[in-house]
Amino acid sequence: MADVNNAFDVELLYLDHLNAVPNRGRALRRNDFENLREEEFLKRYRLSKTVVGKVVEEIQERLEYPTNRNIPLSPMQQILITLRFYATGSFHLMVGDNAGISKSTVSRIVSKVSAAIASMRRRYVTFPSVQERPSIVQQFYDMYNFPGIVGAIDCTHIKIQSPGGNRAEIYRNRKGYFSVNVQVISDANLLIRDIVARWPGSVHDSTIFSNSHIRAQFEMGAIDEGILLGDSGYPLRKYLLTSYLHPETRPQHNYNAAHIRTRNCVERMIGVWKRRFPVLSLGLRTKRQTTLTIIVATAVLHNIAVETRDQLPPEDLTLHQYITERRRNRHIRNQNLVPIHMENEQTAAAYRNAFAQQHFA
User: Fold this and answer.
1) d(CA 126, CA 132)
2) Helix, strand and coil percent figures for the chain, each rounded to 5
């Protein structure tokens, strides 16, 4: 397992080198927001100036210092330091050196700013309301004619350093590295509609879902319409449709084809999220609570960027293979579909069978 940890170190050092910018005389407190061209700013901080300005306006009161003693960093400077950390995945020393401040100060800033951004979660990461659901169902239907869908669900692993202690091994996932297993729900526009970021890497996707608030809402009827799409790692429910492991009939094969292509939006969303914030791919070497806060904060920023149609920053092909690895290359046939009407007492398996027969025959 030492090889895995060594690879982690080498990867971070490589990114430090790759993303280092000439110091220009160690200029303190430089103003990249004003001085960099838009394309340079986007490449360095992974968000446009428009989005960064919006974020500053929303959380600056939480970042201002009560006095001007010791020339404190402005809210804008604090946010740019944090975004640089999200952008490079490098440890605090390089970020602090570039900003002319100490490693410990950078650490505190990243924690403070991440908490402030994550506090906007209820505003920007919301499951579709009753009023929104019809339009979201239509958007999914317009993609590949799969009716009734309000979201696609999946989990993704965020690499972390070993948390240490007696319980460290529960964070080691089946691929052998330490991680947090994060559950997300995406809509057709690649917005994150729900996120659960607290489970160790060894925990199975189905366990995370079974203990989630969103599952409880479906079970209790608080969400009484709409269907989620999940892969075979999830339990089959009337409100959570999975693909057939062994399709036998043409409707079942057609159902699987449409299911795969429709559910692909969550895989694309995760790819875009990790492309914008490479720290999610490279790994986090922060305290556990700070790590979880950073994950949620980047989800909030992702949604703000999607809502404002922010341009994606340049992609580093050596670091971002997520979509290519997970995308399934299958030939899909679109089918003409009609509404489905089912009795409430049908089992989930019978529901799926009838769904496939009536929609994909």
Assistant:
1) 11
2) 50, 10, 40
Q: What are 270's two structure tokens?
A: 């995760």
CA-to-CA distance for 358 and 340, rounded, in angstroms? 7
Strand-strand pairing, 149-159 and 179-186? antiparallel
Q: What is the pTM assigned to this prediction?
A: 0.83
Of 161, 17, 21, 177, nearest in space to 90 by CA: 17
Give the tokens for residue 192.
């994150």
Orientation angle between helical segments 103-118 and 92-99, nearest 10 degrees: 100
189 CB-contact burial (10 Å; exposed 0-12 / middle 13-18 / buried 19+) = middle
* Residue carrying the six token digits 């509404």: 339
**CB–CB of 241/259 below 8 Å?**
yes
Separation of alpha carbons 356 and 335, rounded Å: 11
Consecutive 10-residue averages of pLDDT for the chain (361 residues): 47 46 47 89 93 95 74 87 86 53 84 97 96 96 95 97 91 95 97 98 96 95 94 93 93 95 96 94 92 98 96 62 39 29 58 88 82
**Contact by Cβ (8 Å): 173, 201:** yes
**From CA 305, how far away is CA 311, in angstroms rounded?**
8
Q: β-strand 149-159 against 227-229: which pairing, if any?
A: parallel
